[in-house]
Amino acid sequence: MLEYLPEVRAWQEPLYRDLHQHPELSHQERRTAGVVAARLRESGLDVHEGVGGTGVVGVLGSGDGPRVLLRADMDALPVTEATGLPYASAVPGVMHACGHDVHVTCLLGAAELFARATDLWRGTVITLFQPAEEVGGGARGMVDDGLVDLIGPVDVALAQHVFPAPAGQVRTRTGPVLSAADSLRITVYGRGGHGSMPHATVDPVVLASMIVIRLQTIVSREVDPSQTVVLTVGSVQSGTKSNVIGGHAVLELNLRTFDESVRTAVLAAIRRVVIAECQASNSPREPEFEMYDNFPLTVNDDAATARVETAFSAYFGDRVQTMPAAPASEDFSDIPVALGAPYTYWGFGGIDEQAFHAAVMADRVSADIPVNHSPRFAPVIQPTLDTGTQALVVAGLSWL
Length: 400
What we know:
Blueprint: H1 5-21, H2 30-43, E1 46-51, E2 55-62, E3 67-73, H3 100-116, E4 123-130, H4 138-144, H5 147-151, E5 156-166, E6 170-172, E7 175-178, E8 180-189, E9 193-194, H6 204-222, E10 229-238, E11 244-245, E12 248-257, H7 260-280, E13 288-295, E14 298-300, H8 302-316, E15 320-322, H9 334-339, E16 343-351, H10 353-361, H11 365-368, H12 384-397
Parallel strand pairs: 3-4, 3-5, 5-16, 6-15
Antiparallel strand pairs: 1-2, 2-4, 6-16, 7-14, 8-12, 8-13, 9-11, 10-12
Helix pairs in contact: 1-3, 2-3, 3-12, 6-7, 8-12
GO molecular function, one term: N-acetyldiaminopimelate deacetylase activity
Organism: Mycobacterium syngnathidarum
Keywords: Hydrolase, Manganese, Metal-binding
């Protein structure tokens, strides 16, 4: 099947440049969805558009057998590109800074390869192109829009992500691989007044400051040191002028956890700390809590991951590495959980191998190698596209 890769590569590379040049934000992936649907139809798949808004599903059958779902995400980020590429984003302030254009291109290539060789496999390939991963709602949106009834049961769900490692490498991991993520917007209330008369006020800046300090003790003093937890206060806003004490403060927090019980306990501790500090400051109103941008925990199924890793090792050899658990987050797992299917999620490299190793030797990886979401993130086209396409086909064939 993979002998057709050179022919697929001929359209994949220009298509990738086109997608990179025309990024679209979450829930706005209309042009991308149109390109995807047209390409799938050209490859001979049955296509369903508009699932969860802009999601696209392509189905290809070849007799009785397992049903394998392959997923790619489509959305870009509100980032101004600084790569200097000749095919850099033509959309001001929007960029494919996380490689979702790579994911789309690889899955379209895999779909074409499966379609060209239906005599070599048995079962059903379901290609799913998901919107709005970056805001954590795209997978759930597709599920809520009837995805389960649309595609029926599946035996396994597979997904991948390009990341800053040498191009050509593939990395797998069993168990927790990506953290859950929860963002909170917390509003605490004071009593405003003149900066020269603080005794007549309840200062929300002081209150917010005490909350920030106290929150740091949750991880250091309430979480088992063997657990990985990241708690970040990314924004604190209050007041309008140096000599005016405002009436409220807004804090925005982000929490990353790898265990559901720890996640629940830390969220409860955040609420407890905020309420207690408000009481200690004599706040005139109860604080308000708003949860947003929530991502589920990604925990790879042991058996499915072992099956994919065995197939990868046979095909890629020593290019297969172990992927470390990362406090990054994904909403992919919402789909297989809704389908009641096991899943596995792997990574593949997108950085020029020589450049990566030169950075390692100079101890400048963090300085010289742009990471996902950086305005300089730019996967090399090859062997990145080949590797991502091969990985999807090899993993799918381990069932089909």
